[in-house]
Design brief:
FadR family transcriptional regulator, Four Helix Bundle (Hemerythrin (Met), subunit A), two-stranded antiparallel ribbon, 64% helix, disordered N terminus, DNA-binding, 2 strands, Arc Repressor Mutant, subunit A, 10 helices, WH-like_DNA-bd_sf, mainly alpha, 231 residues, single chain
Length: 231
Amino acid sequence: MVIALIERIQHISLSSQVLEQMKLRIRSHEWPPASKLPSESDLSAMFGVSRVTIRNALHRLVGLGLIETRLGDGSYVATIDESSGLNSLIPVAYLEENIESILEFRREFESGACAIAAGRAETEDIADLRDMLAKMLALQNDRSALADADLKFHYRIAAISRNSLIIKTYEIISEVYSAHMKRVVRAIGGEAGCYYHAIIVDALEAGDAEKARKFMYEHIAANEKFLLKGK
């Protein structure tokens, strides 16, 4: 009998919830680079939480390099020079802006990871993926939850590769992927994605590395064509 993996239930603190909403506003440029954030009291009223909770979230944003605090003047969204590269520890949230680069990276990186996974997938791995696919099919009318499920599906394939560098790469860019996946699913929906996911799982189950690579490549290329249409 195959037992599906159980995800530990997590308690998400108020400051973490506020932090995620603030990061989303920065990524979407609702709060653009160099702009001044509302005061702590205004943020407290906006989010309906205490000023202590707001202060904790702001401190974490400073730690992530997303904002800077000016003594006596308040907090400002940081301005990042992307040309300085990843080695300068650019906050990954800013990389989400360049969707063409993300799609290009995903197309090449994930198709290779999928080919490796095809040679290492075990019975329980395939069962997990089919369970995830069933959940995605049931979430077609909830695009936010569908995006989260979609991200877990792709990460599960990375885990099946049993390649520590592939897995670590996913972990490093997980924040970029999360925001990107929500953008993709919001724009495209989930029908095409579920179609490709199904044939990818079939290829993984068959141990067919070339088909797994081909279908993952086509999956992301199709998203790329749709999202960049008219550019």
